[in-house]
Amino acid sequence: MEMPAVIRRRTRLSPEARREQLMQCAIEVFSKRGLGRAGHAEIAQLAQVSVATVFNYFSNREQLVDHVLIQIEDFFGHMVRKHFIDIPGQQNHSAHQAIHDYLADFVDAAIDNPQFTYIWLEWSSSIREDTWPRYLALLDSNIAIISNKIAPAIASGDINTYLTTTEFARSLCNQGYMILQLVNQPQAMDRESIIAFVEKYVTSALAKQTPP
């Protein structure tokens, strides 16, 4: 597949800058080619360097996949930690505000950093023997962090749901699939409408029915 060039002429970079450039190209290539097919040659073509240069930084395909997944783990793990881990001594958001901000961040990621979300989508929905356990570890970590934040709100009834704390946290993690569908449909909704729709689903569709 023909890849667009990121750098149009070869430029001498420091080792740190070259590694960063190659990783940016790797994210681009993996988002288009997939975890199972992307490789050193496509990254070299996009970065306009030799294939040997890419191998100097990522000595085999397993190492290349590992470094790409580290980027995805950091990106989505940070998104969860930023909104659902309270910092002592600071004014922290309510559980409802944390949910809103997390969903808004995911929508922004789908719009502004689609390469990261495309790789996440494949990783989280393809049960590949070599990568699936690692995704489950990330998911379990995110569920635990979210659960710790929302548990008091569910216990007090501030979040009105028929789900357990863990079930609600898992459902929240899974809203990424709906967000990507809404962002990438032919006649996509605008950002605010997507956030409002998904938040309404989370807070209303999963709520307990109020007795008449």
UniProtKB/TrEMBL annotation:
Residues annotated as domain HTH tetR-type: 16-76
Protein keywords: DNA-binding, Transcription, Transcription regulation
The keyword Transcription is annotated on this UniProt entry: yes
Domain of life the protein comes from: Bacteria
UniProt GO MF annotations: DNA-binding transcription factor activity; transcription cis-regulatory region binding
Coiled coil location: none
DNA-binding interval(s): 39-58
Name under which the protein is recorded: SmcR-like protein VvpR
